[in-house]
Amino acid sequence: MISFFRKKKLQALLSEVRAYVDQKLEAPVSYCEKSIDCCEAMPMAMPMPMKKRCAIASAPASPAPRSVKDYVDSQIDEGFSQMLMRKIDEKGMTDVECYKKAGVDRKLFSKIRSNPDYHPKKNTVLAFAVALELSLDEAKDMLMKAGYALSNSRRFDLIMEYFFINGIYNIRDINSVLLQMDEELLGA
C-alpha cells in the first residue's frame, strides 16, 4: 500500500510530467531548408520562415570511401553491450547492482553481456540508463547504440526525457507515472 506522502509526491510528479509532455507535443517542428536528402521529414509545401538549417546540411563533404567495407570499418563504434559494461564500470557499480536497479533479470543481462550484437527493447535500454543515472545526452547515446532514439512525437519518449532532464532516477516512481499515463513500464 502506498503511503499518503508517497501518493502526494507521485501525484505532483504526474502533474509535472503531463504539463511537460503537453507543452512539448504542441511545440512547432523546425525543418531543414536544404533538400529532401538532408531532412526526409520536410514537407515540400512548407513555407520558408518555418524551415531551419540543420547540421547535416552544412557539414563539409568528406572523401568517399573506396568500398562499403572500408566505410563500415572507418565508422564502426562501440555497441550497446560494450557501452553498458563501460558505464557500469565508470559508475563503480557491479553488474548485479545495475541489472537489479534496472529491474532486468539475470538471464537477459547475461544475454546482453555475452552477445555484443544483441539489441534489447527500448524500455530495457532506458531502464539501464535510469539505473546508471545517465544524463539526457548519455541516455540518448545509449539508445542510439541499441538502434533507438527519443522522439518528440511519442508521449513515452517525452516522459522519459522529462525524468532525465530533472534527474529523477527512481524506477518505481518512473513506472508509477508511466502506469498512470497508460504507457509501457521500464525493465524487462
Q: Which shape, going by the Cα principal axes? A: globular
Q: State the secondary-structure class.
A: mainly alpha
Number of DSSP E strands: 0
Major β-sheet, in short? none
- Rounded to an integer, what's the Rg over CA atoms? 20 Å
Number of helices: 10
Overview of this protein structure:
The protein contains ten helices and no strands. It is an all-alpha fold. Helix 5 crosses helix 7. It is globular.
What descriptors fit this protein?
188 residues; mainly alpha; 10 helices; 0% strand; globular
Outline the fold blueprint.
Elements: H1 4-25, H2 55-58, H3 68-75, H4 80-90, H5 95-102, H6 106-114, H7 122-131, H8 136-145, H9 155-165, H10 171-180
Helix pairs in contact: 1-9, 1-10, 4-8, 5-7, 7-8
How is this structure best summarized?
The protein has 10 helices and no strands. With 188 residues, it is mainly α.
